[in-house]
Amino acid sequence: MDKDYHPIKAAVTAVLALVFFVVLVWYGVDMITTEVPEIEHVFQNTSFYAILIGIPLAITIGLSNFFSRGDKKRLISGIVSTGVLMLYLYMVLNSVVLGFEGDEYTYTITIPGIIILSLIGAAIRGSYYGFEYYLYQKEPEIEEPEEDIQYY
Fold first, then answer.
1. Average pLDDT, stretch 114-135?
2. What is the mean pLDDT of residues 64-91?
3. Residue 108: inside a domain, yes or no?
4. Where are the beta strands (DSSP E) in 1-152?
5. What is the rounded distance in angstroms from the CA atom of residue 64 to the CA atom of residue 138?
6. Phi and psi, residue 99, nearest 5°
7. Torsion angle defined by CA atoms of residues 115, 117, 119 and 124, in that order, rounded to the nearest 10 degrees
8. For residue 57, what are the domain limits?
9. Within 10 A of 61 (CB to CB), how many other CB atoms are there?
10. Average pLDDT over residues 81-90
């Protein structure tokens, strides 16, 4: 295996991302809905989206840490992981429905500001990979021609 690859770093990062994006969200939603079953309607499909999109997110985050800085493969996998992160944030935050129900009225509170700010933060994370590629890109090695030309 090439010395520019980091499999241990990638595996540790993927496991930590899996714990953070899937297990903690699932456990938090489960704990809240178990303690306060009246607000179970607030977390419609939040655990489902966290598991469905969180697993590929953890894999792509680990994959982006497998490659070295300045590698084109890291740039591509970093941009893909940013896209998956943006999808994850949008789906998980959009699945939280805050609302109040009365006898003759129903209020629903949407959180587009938080969603937009989190998507902007994820886009900034994606631009990091572009800057990192630009700053750390490897110079292509130019091979010198061999001097075995015979002159008569």
1. 93
2. 94
3. yes
4. 98-101, 106-109
5. 17
6. -160, 160
7. -170
8. 7-136
9. 24
10. 96
Per the listing, tokens 């590629």 go with 133
Give the C-alpha separation, 61 to 79, whole Å. 10
Under a CB-based contact definition with an 8 Å cutoff, are residues 48 and 104 in contact?
no
Q: For residues 45 and 110, what is the distance between their CA atoms, to the nearest angstrom?
A: 16
d(CA 90, CA 114) in angstroms, rounded, equals: 10
Predicted local confidence at residue 55, as pLDDT: 96
- Look at the chain and report how many structural domains it folds into: 1
Q: At what angle do helices 24-35 and 46-64 cross, to 10 degrees?
A: 160
Reference 87, options 126, 34, 132; nearest CA is 126
Average pLDDT over residues 98-107: 73
pLDDT on residue 103: 73
Query: How does pLDDT run across 136-151, given as a tens digit for each residue?
Result: 887 766 777 666 666 6
CB 64 within 8 A of CB 84: no
Angle between helices 7-18 and 46-64 (to 10 degrees): 170
| 1 is a domain residue | no
Are 127 and 86 within 8 A, CB to CB? no
Give me 138's structure tokens: 């490897």
* DSSP-derived 3-state class of residue 70: coil
